[in-house]
Automatic annotation (TrEMBL):
Protein name (record): 2EXR domain-containing protein
Top-level taxonomic group: Eukaryota
Pfam families: 2EXR
InterPro entries, sorted: 2EXR
Domain 2EXR: start-end pairs: 79-162
Length: 349
C-alpha cells in the first residue's frame, strides 16, 4: 500500500539483504528468463550456447583495440584503367586540365632561332600522353610566328593571358604586325604594366593604340601596377608567378612593399579601350615557388642587386617612381567605376 510502512520484521531484513548480496548478478540468466517465454510462444526451440563456445567466441575479441581508428587504405598511385573509359569522358578529363596561363613574350633578335618566344612552361597535357597531346594541340596552336621565324609558343587564344611587359617598347608595334588574322580576331586577354605604358613615346603610343583597334576579339585589357617586394621573390622573372588582383591580400600588405610608377592618366584618357568592359587596372605581386627564387645561390643583399633594365618592369624599382603612401589604396583607374573584386591568380570568367 503506498505510503505505508513495511510489514517485515527487523529479524527478516538481514536475511533479505544477505540473499541480495550473496547472489551474483547473472545477465545471461536474466536474458534467458526474458527471452524464453518469447521462444516458447513462437514454438521455436531456444538456441543453446555452451560455456566453452561462449569462451571461444569472447576470446576472439580480446586483442581487438577499443575505440581505435582503423587506418584507411592508401589510394593506388596510378590508375591503369583510364584508357578503358569512353573517349568522351577521357576528353573531358583532359580538357579539365586546361587552366588559364600567364604567358610572357620575349623577342630574340640576336639568338637562334630568333623571333618571339616565351620562357613559360607549356601545358602539361602536351607531354602526358599521345591522346592528350592531340587534344591539346587543337586548343593550343603554335602562335606568334612570322614569315622570318616559325611560331613556337603554344597559346590558347580564348583562355590564356598575354603579357607584353617583357617586350621592349620598340618591339611592341612589330609584335602586333606579325600576328595573323586568326590571332588578331581571337585573342581575348592582354596584360601590360603601367611603367611600360608610361615609357612609350608619343609615336609609339599612337602605334600601340592603332594596334589595339585591330584586336576584334579583345575582352579585357589589363593594366597592372607591380608591387616591389623585398626578398627572393624580387628576383623571379617568371610571369607565371605573377598574381593579379584589384585588392592586395593581407599577407602582402603585412610585408614591406611599394607600388611602382602609377599610370599617368592624362596620357591615356583618350584610349578607346578605357571603357569598363574592356580595361581593368590591377595590382600585381609575386607568389613565387619556382626553383630560381628558392635557390640558395640567389643573393638577396642590396649590394649584389644590379638594377639593369631588361624591359621586365615587374621587377624594376625606380627611385623617382616610388609611391610609398599609395601602397594601401586602389590604383588610379581610367574612370570612376568600381569593377568589384577579382579572383587572384586569373581573369574573371
Amino acid at each position: 500500500m503506498p505510503g505505508s510502512w513495511s510489514t517485515l520484521s527487523s529479524d527478516e531484513l538481514p536475511d533479505l539483504v544477505a540473499d541480495q548480496v550473496n547472489t551474483p548478478f547473472d545477465p545471461n540468466a536474466l536474458l534467458a528468463a526474458f527471452v524464453a517465454p518469447l521462444y516458447a510462444a513462437a514454438n521455436v526451440p531456444m538456441p543453446f550456447t555452451s560455456e566453452t563456445e561462449r569462451a571461444e567466441a569472447l576470446s576472439l575479441f580480446e586483442d581487438m583495440p577499443f575505440h581505435k581508428e582503423i587506418p584507411r587504405p592508401i589510394a593506388a598511385p596510378t590508375f591503369t584503367l583510364f584508357m578503358n573509359l569512353p573517349f568522351d569522358l577521357r576528353a573531358a578529363i583532359w580538357k579539365a586540365s586546361f587552366v588559364p596561363r600567364s604567358v610572357s613574350m620575349h623577342y630574340m633578335s640576336y639568338t637562334s632561332p630568333g623571333g618571339f618566344h616565351t620562357m613559360e612552361s607549356p601545358p602539361v597535357a602536351l607531354s602526358v600522353h599521345k591522346e592528350s597531346r592531340n587534344l591539346a594541340l587543337k586548343l593550343y596552336p603554335l602562335c606568334f610566328g612570322s614569315i622570318w621565324y616559325p611560331a613556337t609558343v603554344p597559346f590558347n587564344l580564348t583562355l590564356d593571358i598575354l603579357f607584353l611587359t617583357s617586350i621592349s617598347v620598340d618591339q611592341l608595334p612589330h609584335f602586333f604586325a606579325v600576328m595573323n588574322q586568326n590571332e588578331l580576331s581571337r585573342l581575348r586577354y592582354i596584360a601590360i604594366s603601367a611603367p611600360k605604358l608610361n615609357r612609350l613615346s608619343l609615336p609609339q603610343r599612337s602605334k600601340f593604340k592603332d594596334a589595339l583597334k585591330h584586336l576584334a576579339g579583345l575582352e579585357e585589357f589589363l593594366i597592372y601596377y607591380p608591387v616591389a617586394r623585398q626578398g627572393k621573390s624580387r628576383y623571379c622573372t617568371s610571369v607565371s608567378c605573377t598574381v593579379l588582383g584589384d585588392i592586395l591580400p593581407h599577407d602582402v600588405l603585412d610585408k614591406g612593399l611599394m607600388v611602382t610608377n602609377m599610370l599617368n592618366k592624362d596620357k591615356w584618357e583618350d584610349l578607346e579601350f578605357s571603357k569598363p568592359s574592356k580595361c581593368k587596372t590591377l595590382f600585381s605581386w609575386k607568389r613565387c615557388c619556382c626553383e630560381d627564387a628558392l635557390s640558395e645561390s640567389v643573393s638577396t643583399s642590396e649590394e649584389s642587386f644590379h638594377d639593369e633594365d631588361s624591359d621586365d618592369d615587374d621587377n624594376d624599382v625606380y627611385s623617382g617612381d616610388l609611391h610609398f603612401d599609395d601602397s594601401l589604396f586602389r590604383p588610379i583607374s581610367f574612370n570612376s567605376f568600381d569593377y568589384g573584386p577579382m579572383d587572384f591568380g586569373g581573369h574573371p570568367e
